[in-house]
Write a structure and sequence with these properties.
Layout (H helix, E strand, L loop, with lengths): L1 E2 L2 E5 L5 E3 L3 E5 L9 H4 L2 H4 L11 H12 L5 E11 L5 E11 L2 E6 L8 H16 L10 E7 L3 H9 L3 E12 L3 E11 L5 H4 L18 H15 L1
Antiparallel strand pairs: 1-2, 3-4, 4-5, 5-6, 6-7, 8-10, 9-10
The structure holds coenzyme A (COA).
């Protein structure tokens, strides 16, 4: 099924998984309102490419649309089991997944920080993402990576707790309106049966620098989205 506003971008195949406290399921455009506690939070948004809170619902819808549509997109809304929002729907406390492989990203509801939810969700996401992402021999990747703004200790901690290894720091390759230009720290995890070393994505290995692995800037990300739309056309 294609999005009526952009026939080139498909709604991805439905996915859901449960953990002890959470349900992860494919994110929908209609989740936009439920994302408000995250998108309107300066504390959350400063770490994202937006840099500033998103308060306008139309802009929020555009923001979500750019992330959830596309055949290969794997963006999930994270619901807190047993909790309802004001409209009686399961409360969404996070968004997590990939809009361009091999990168994964996430934001969580600031009212629920430090309860282990992001770690719990990421531990469930990793095996599912390896299943969804084509392997290197099929034109994809044999590792996942998370890029954090240098200094985002909470995010780095989540990645490490979920089994990722800090691999390298790239200089001045991220820019948003909160931090200006800054460095990124990259964490990676290999597909089961592979190692980061044999994949050549540890520090100092040549493929880690080939430029294809990184899509930190807003322009790189929109390029990746445009390529996706083109590929699906
Ligand atoms: C990063 C984020 C997803 C973490 O969500 P969460 O549900 O609070 O994460 P968890 O509870 O699973 O784990 C957080 C860990 O970070 C640690 N932490 C939190 N703030 C920290 C800080 N300022 N310095 C060091 N560690 C910190 C916590 O103590 C915890 O580690 P522990 O279990 O060893 O004690 C959430 O803070 C967030 O949405 N931040 C804004 C958006 C963002 O940064 N996204 C990632 C972009 S790369």
């Amino acid at each position: 099924m294609a999005d009526p506003g952009n026939p080139n971008l498909e709604v991805p195949a439905f996915f859901e998984a449960e953990t002890e406290r959470l349900r992860l399921r494919t994110a929908y455009l209609s989740d936009a309102k439920a994302y408000a506690p995250m998108l309107t939070s300066p504390e959350v948004m400063k770490w994202t490419s937006a840099g500033v809170p998103i308060t306008d619902i139309d802009v929020a819808e555009q923001w979500i649309k750019a992330r959830v549509l596309g055949r290969d997109t794997f963006k999930l809304s994270v619901e807190l089991k047993g909790s309802l929002d004001n409209s009686g729907h399961p409360e969404i406390i996070g968004m997590m997944g990939s809009d361009h492989w091999p990168e994964i990203g996430y934001i969580f509801h600031p009212g629920h920080f430090n309860k282990g939810y992001a770690t719990e969700a990421l531990r469930a996401l990793v095996p599912a993402a390896f299943e969804r992402m084509p392997s290197a021999e099929n034109g994809g990747y044999d590792f996942l990576q998370g890029g954090t703004v240098k200094g985002n200790a909470a995010s780095g901690r989540v990645l490490e707790k979920a089994g990722f290894t800090e691999c390298e720091t790239t200089l001045q390759d991220f820019e948003n309106s909160f931090f200006g230009r800054c460095d990124s720290v990259w964490y990676r995890i290999a597909r089961p049966g592979k190692t980061l070393e044999e994949l050549g994505v540890l520090p100092g290995t040549s493929s880690a620098k080939d430029g294809l692995l990184f899509a930190r800037s807003a322009s790189d990300k929109s390029k990746a989205r445009a390529q996706r739309a083109e590929a699906e056309a």
